[in-house]
Amino acid sequence: MALTKEYEYDCEVRGPYKAVQVRKSTIIKDDDVEISRSYHRHVLHPRTKSGDTWGDTDISGEDAAIQAVCNAVWTNSIKSAYETFADSQEIT
User: Fold this and answer.
1) ∠ CA 53-55-58, rounded to 5°
2) Which end of the chain has less Cβ packing within 10 Å, N or C?
């Protein structure tokens, strides 16, 4: 009996600011037979704000395929538009 753990990633790009919704599947197998599957979801936005400073979202910990999608859809104009939108939503 050999237990193994595998990961599968799925994503979709949503909205005008290209939010990337990620679903990570964790698959547990016993002798190549799947015995368990669980899911974790999270959303990545093109920019993050710390205090009053905007910066690129850190995607270094994401799967290479997810990084490629983010890098393809997060253009400078999308990043700028997202910052403008998010700043307009702040409660003062």
Assistant:
1) 140
2) C
Instruction: Please tell me the total count of domains within the chain.
Output: 1
C-alpha–C-alpha distance, residues 8 and 27, integer Å = 8
Residue 84 CA, chain-centre distance (Å), reads 21
Tens digits of residue pLDDT in 29-78: 999 999 999 999 999 999 999 999 999 999 999 999 999 999 999 999 99
Structure tokens at 19: 């939010």
Domain extent for 7: 3-88
Answer whether 23's CB lies under 8 Å from 39's CB: yes
Per the CB < 8 A criterion, the answer to whether 5 and 19 are in contact is: no
